[in-house]
Structures
1.
Amino acid sequence: MATAEITPQELAEHGLTPEEYARIREILGRPPRPVELGIFSVMWSEHCSYKSSRIHLRKFPTEAPWVVCGPGENAGVVDIGDGQVAVFKMESHNHPSFIEPYQGAATGVGGILRDVFTMGARPVAILDALRFGAPDHPRTRHLLAGVVAGIGGYGNCVGVPTVGGETSFHRAYNGNILVNAMCVGIAPRDRVFYARAAGVGNPVVYVGAKTGRDGIHGATMASAEFSEDAEAKRPTVQVGDPFMEKLLIEACLELMASDCIVAIQDMGAAGLTSSSFEMAARGGTGIELDLDAVPLREANMSAYEIMLSESQERMLMVLARGREAEARAVFAKWELDFAIIGRVTDSGRMVVRHRGEVVADVPVAPVSGGSPVYDRPWRLPDPPVPFISDDQTVHLSPREVLLRLLSCPDLASRRWIWEQYDHSVMADTVAGPGGDAAVVRVHGTKKGLALTVDCTPRYCRADPRMGGRQAVAEAYRNLVAVGARPLAITDCLNFGNPERPDIMGQFVGCIEGMAEACRALSFPVVSGNVSLYNETDGQAVLPTPEVGGLGLIEDLAKRTGLAFDADGLHLVLIGEVTGWLGQSVFQREILGREEGAPPPVDLLLEKRHADFVAAQIEAGRLRACHDLADGGLAVAMAEMCLASGRGGRLSVPAEVPSLFGWLYGEDQARYLLAVAPEHLRPLLEEAAAAGVIAREVGVTGGDALIIDGMPPISLEELRRCHEGWLPAWMDGGEGSESGSWR
Amino acid sequence: MRAAVVTFPGSNCDRDLRVAMERVFDRPVASLWHAETELPPLDLVGLPGGFSYGDYLRCGAIAARSPIMGEIRRLARRGVAVLGICNGFQILTEAGLLPGALVRNMRLSFVCRPVRIAVATTASPFTNAYAQGQELTLPVAHHDGNYVIDPEGLARLEAEDRIAFRYLDNPNGSTADIAGVLGPQRNVLGMMPHPERACDPLLGGEDGVLLFRSLLAMLT
């Protein structure tokens, strides 16, 4: 059959370069048919092919004795003992959420849930990392309200608790918010399902929602910069149906209890195209598809639309031949569509028929794994100069500073957000939002999974390598602080346009820093997602390599939290205090500056301090434990007091060079511990023996936070400051009083 | 004690309720599919929380017309205990087994947090193990938990002592702080807070245990 050459305009509309087109011609030996062009367009999009990132992603360590399945499948899999595995992954839904925040965020949650249950795991927890523009930007309030409602609307309905996350604000996200969703599931180790087609003649089965015209070219949209007319892309945002998803979860898990399924893959970005190609590519097979059998929501859909639709809540399976009736009965019970739409072949080709005509006939491997790989030029930013602070330039008292920080947009309580998420459904949430890491019990056992998402984008911008290290180290600390053994991470790497060397430099630097930390901490990457082109009109987001960490608590009786449960406990600070204020929240909120080097991350120190804290928790000596991060020691102390409903006294050593540095510096590798009097001496002795800097910095008790040399702050006032900002702002109050970052 | 929990398409607290019941009752609790019309002999039926049929019509409206609801109505008339929690409460009002209706929360957003409620009557198979006025902390998690009822209906509930629980810090705008109501025969209870999520000290409390213990004492 003769096919016409593709015009340059068609190429541009499909986001393909002339070089890529030449390659397509070479693979096919002819110009592509329209459906084939669509297939190449989505499969070779940045979003699906990782063409700019692949060579750098190889730098991540991905193995450890407890890793069952690393990157490359729908989600990562780690062993959690007793014949069970945890399955987890994080993914972005940034562009759709900016255009249509409710549906964008909702379908982001839906997609990540499918990545997890497609592997045979029951989803048990959702976390979200959200980045919004400046609070006083006209769209921010609307976007935040929509995203939160969308996450809640989906997660609450499917009945998977949303147990944690993080939210921050910066003007760099004004035109391009980030919505990263992480899902964790649990499966029997011997019943993990993979997406590898096998068995010539086995039926290829479509289940779930019908296919409509929504989301066509969503993956291509996610692979290009935004411009002012982003609104015009609203039709490419999919619409979610969490009820359908709930049915799909139950039906799939019910069928997975049998041995009917050979392979299974959700239809995510690039829909039927990517799911069929990926299953065939992983299995080294071919597939024949009959699009006339696909359940459709709208009449007269073209083959092109059916192949590229990103309608939600759909799965593709390869069943064992002869088991079709059994499988169909399960889906009938759950009132879901079930259609045999193809067969596995040994041709190595994807052959797609529609209305009696072959509309695509392409080799699987070159499409799926054969996209061009780019080693894009990159340039690291100039090494930042350490910021030297001078207490004399601060015109606020340390007390005013603390209240200002606790109520600033990045540190104020997120209660307004997480009260809209059902975080206690499934009745296994041991520690929900608001702590260092969430803790979810492994159902029916005394074990728990600790979960956290972390990144400090301002550090990453100032020094990508250090910022990458810090994101991993902070996730590690948050897990250790609740008494967990950190096992592995998933990541979601959000950056601007990789065709710009400075953006590519941020990407490469962050990855290398993350990889160093992962290696030093034996904390491998088992799954992840890359989201590039997060720019609007040339303004890139801050480099945001979000890290989702997972750890295991063997015995929930030994977990810790940030609330201390008694008066008269000693507060012990682990780690060195240099008073590092460069790139700190203090610097931005109080000094109105964002400059200098971020705090250095010494990975040996991180490991040593984490091991020490873990040993103290294991020995039962800690009554509370909190990781020190944004806002430093004084903010950490205030958070512990608020969580406890108890006050405390924080003493400031006479010799500190900078009071503000001591209180608000963001030196890394630090923890604040609460220790009963009888355990203080052995703890300090063991710290000395292990070469860990530990010093007593205060005591718990009373109903106020007292910092040496300043008037007490009652818990009530602390709470008012901390809890007040977000609800007041959402009701239309002021954005923020402070500085340069707006 | 023969107990069962119904699963509607979209139920998502069915397992939680079953687990909590089994923990207190110390015996297996059956699972019923919404399409069933012939039920085994039962002393207690639970209608769990969730989003039956996605709650795409009014919450609980479609589930109230599920095949199993004919049987549940019959059991309720015969005096079998029927417990509806959250979406289960919504289904019971839609089915006409309880008066009033549950509409969108006053602040219009979903709310998930522990709330304090008081036991308003101990004269029921669900609350007899509590003390009158006893204060409990139970989680709520709902978008449509704002209980509304006309003044005559409210007067009747109060006159007949059928308000089972009242909020001490009303999270949703419910009329007269009502968190749970009893049917005319006192064997049907609908409540928005989740007692099944408060049956384990590890999860932040055991204030829900006595509800199930009340049932155990009354029905065995």
2.
Amino acid sequence: MALLETQKLTKTFIGLKAVTNMDLSVNKGQILGLIGPNGAGKTTLFNLISGALPPTSGKVLYKGRDITGFKPHILARMGIVRTFQLATVFQELSVLDNIQVALHYKSRVGFLQTLFETPAMAHKENGIVREKAMKLLNIAGLTNLADTRAGNLPGGYQKLMSVIIALAVDPELLLLDEPMSGLNAEEIQTLIRLVKTIRDERGTGIIMVEHNMKVVMDHCEYIVVINFGQKIAEGTPAQIASDQRVIEAYLGSE
Amino acid sequence: MKLPKWQTYIPLLFIIFMFVLPLFMNSPRYLNLLNQLLLNIILAMGVYSVWSVGFINAAQPIFYGLGSYTVALLMMRAHFPFWLAFPMAGVIPAVVALLFGLIGLKMKGAYFLFLTIALDGLISWLFISWKGLFGGQLGIFPVPQPRIQAFGLDINFATSRTPYYYLALVTAVITCLVYFKMFNSRLGRVWESIGKTEDLLANTGISVFTQKQIALAVSCFFAGLAGAIWAPYITIITPSQFGLWQGITIVLGVLVGGIYSPLGAIIGTIFMAALNLVFTYLPSQTVQYQPMALGFILVLVLLFMPTGILGLSGRVQNRIKELTGRKTAPPSINKDDVKAV
């Protein structure tokens, strides 16, 4: 059974068909690349899967369960976690606090518990959360920057953090929205290693929207190409590279 | 928020100071001002907490008013004892807030503000028009006074203003404790991120809407309690006491104090109270110019100290650091910091 499956997923904005009859499926431990020209509907598709937008028609199945129209925070609790193109981190908070906020739901501290816990209890709990956060930061080697304000970090580090924030939520399906944009070659290598580590160690399924063709071709096991909201091709990187429709979509036909 | 050791005692000293204050300042006039100040601090803390999740609530006095009417009606119509009506006066505004939040908190910032203004109009109109329940423009009179008779004590609120002061002080201290505990906790860190990076927060599994509902309901609960102290204190409650203007004044106080810390809400409210005190010394012909003066102050604040009085102290500290050469260096990033994965 596929980890995530979409069936005839369609989203129409007044008159404009952003995504049409999209069938998509990703397995546990698979890295799926989602590519297409600008405005092809990749981000809309992401929004449909992550619950940010309700689809006009069609279904999203997660582990065989219909999750169409679920809200993002519910999906995150179920294990579908996404990153964003722009709002990648909590700018105002320190790097460590970013991860601690991301760990918040797991630590299940409500308003009343916050009020009535003794300082000793709070101290202990804080320590546990802090330790978990440091462990996560260590995965990306960001422990030295724990106290830096996240907004002051260069873009590459923020992208790394955004993946760690998602990781803190314990994803089973990770949706990465243009994770490599704005990164230099070295940063791209670090991020890819991080993503692959996550995949290898936890068997996380990954869908990645990406413009960097080299990354997609080298590291995705399966690629889906969309244009004008429709799937125009899918297959292994080798199949995609030689696909006539893909070449047309990207370079234009004669 | 990490404070040096000696600074942690300042709030404690301040509370003790407030507790002994009536021993020296027992003229009804100052007691009255202090009482109003304490109630306003409770409202301002609520406005600040709702602000921290991304909204401006200009209708805080309406929830305060709901508390006043609740306590008055429960005591007069249903013959509840004050100490039973008092918590109810918190619960009912909180429930109204939750219902209002179902619509209001789905909006973006500015639209929420407009909706609170609409809510203010709606409930004010109810207070005025529903004469059978709320008594119309003339309001409700006289609200019964509470009386404590226990452990050999007999504190009659009818004969002295001082018990009200202590009731307001205890309520204000509890309110502030709740909020400071809240904002310094793990949950507080989450609240600070609401209104800024909401989508990201939702994607970590936090129900942003629920947190906003909690913030609004708690702020209105305490506003209602403040109202429950106000009603028997003033003995006559009328719709005009809970208008939009009062709401704007409270928001203004929070702004002037500094909107980046709950402490700013308190400082700003004290500032506004001091300003009101100054106004009372001015000749009575100047009353009509007071709103103008307030408006002028707001413009000056927004122009010259957008971080408020509290932010000003931070800026002064930075300036001193600059002058003494102890400037904190911006964090530098070393490429070697990021280890290979």
